[in-house]
Design goal:
The chain is α/β, with parallel strands linked by helices and 326 residues long. It contains 13 helices and twelve strands. Helix 2 packs parallel to helix 4. It starts with a helix and ends with a helix.
């Protein structure tokens, strides 16, 4: 892994930068990407963000969706390619081709399972969010963090700690949050966008989730196929957030949700209480993440097959999951 001074040197030397993050980006992915973009532009860099997916209604409040390019990335137009908050090449989706041996590449990430996919890698697994790492980089570049940058970084920090209640929250989380607040982060706008932007039409979908989740021992789970998702006007983020809600119940130690994004492809979101390392399960299924928050993409014939695959993987690795060091 490279040192922060080496990362700063690489960034200062670049003239044109392409920014990427993982597929189905959360607000930490977007916050770190948009925050770094604003900072690099202050240095006079040419910067372009590449993101395929549409933003959620809450994310549209915080991040300028029209500034994200959904087209192909012409590698000849850039001298540096930066990936934020993604632990593996597969997580870059359609833009994985940009991270090859010929291009000048850099990764900034906080996942302990990062595969070091770039020429330059700065991985800080003790950070609760990628936005904390970007804050550190921007500070090292001696760039003044204005209210806009601070708001975007605070949004990512708040998201990945679930407003400072996740097990990855530490003293540095609060320290960086405090500094971002002093820099002008608009906390109330962030809170409204992330936690208070559910549409009324999502109530029908949430009712379906509440009426149909299952419990097996200390695990709660829900599965939604593509047909049901479309009939109820549901969205992926509602289902992913539901796994977090299930883990809040006293009798439940870990939970997961499965949602069919396209025929045969299921998005897995997992959450757990302290003492249960569900990253182990996600990694066994080809994904990754954090100890108490992880995910993967599963290929299966139908929702029942996908659910059974997750349940059997949990059963096979239950002791390892419980005995893992937290």
């Amino acid at each position: 892994m490279n040192k922060i001074k080496e990362i700063v040197k690489v960034l200062k030397k670049s003239k044109s930068v392409a920014l990427f993050t993982h597929i189905s980006p959360d607000s930490d992915a977007l916050g770190s990407t948009f925050g770094l973009s604003l900072a690099l532009k202050k240095l006079g860099k040419k910067v372009q963000i590449f993101i395929k997916e549409e933003f959620t209604e809450g994310q549209k409040i915080l991040f300028e969706e029209d500034e994200a390019n959904r087209g192909e990335c012409n590698v000849n137009d850039f001298d540096l390619f930066i990936c934020l908050d993604a632990s593996a090449i597969e997580r870059l989706g359609d833009y994985a081709y940009c991270f090859n041996d010929e291009n000048n590449t850099l990764v900034l990430d906080h996942h302990v399972c990062n595969n070091y996919i770039a020429k330059y890698n700065y991985i800080e697994s003790e950070s609760s969010s990628c936005c904390e790492i970007v804050y550190k980089v921007i500070t090292a570049l001696k760039i003044k963090i204005d209210s806009d940058i601070a708001t975007k970084l605070y949004a990512g920090l708040s998201t990945d700690t679930s407003s400072f209640i996740n097990s990855n929250t530490n003293s540095n989380s609060f320290l960086v949050a405090s500094k971002l607040c002093l820099a002008g982060a608009k906390i109330q706008i962030v809170n409204q966008a992330i936690y208070q932007s559910k549409s009324l039409k999502s109530v029908v979908f949430k009712k379906h989730l509440l009426n149909n989740f299952q419990i097996k021992g200390e695990c709660a789970y829900i599965g939604v196929d593509l047909k049901t998702l479309q009939e109820l006007n549901g969205v992926k983020n509602d289902c992913s957030g539901f796994s977090k809600m299930l883990a809040n119940y006293k009798e439940i130690n870990y939970s997961f949700s499965l949602i069919e994004q396209e025929p045969g492809s299921f998005s897995l979101s997992m959450r757990s209480k302290i003492g249960f390392n569900i990253r182990i399960i996600a990694e066994k299924l080809g994904g990754g993440g954090h100890i108490c928050a992880a995910g993967a993409t599963i290929k299966a014939k139908n929702i029942d097959e996908a659910i059974n695959l997750v349940l059997s993987t949990i059963t096979e690795n239950k002791e390892e999951m419980k005995n893992a060091t937290i």
